[in-house]
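Study this protein:
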Amino acid sequence: MASRKTNRQLFIDMEAVATLAMVKRGLLSPVCGLMGREEAAQVDKSGLYRGQSFPFSFLLAPSGRRNKEVLSSARQGEVLDL
């Protein structure tokens, strides 16, 4: 039997889960996903996202020892489960 590779996990609180669900449903338009480093810096500097006023960058910053370990060893493009 072939083994099935599973993604590593980040653990987030229910507030973060609810916020991500609102993004998925389009309720935080124009945001449609998490911002990358450069995009977030531009939003913080200009107050604009995709040409529309947006007051802050939209990032996910999970805390805790286990999350820190996963994030410190993650490679760019690696899929992490929430």
Notes: The first helix runs from residue 14 to 24. Residues 37 and 81 are 20 Å apart (CA to CA).
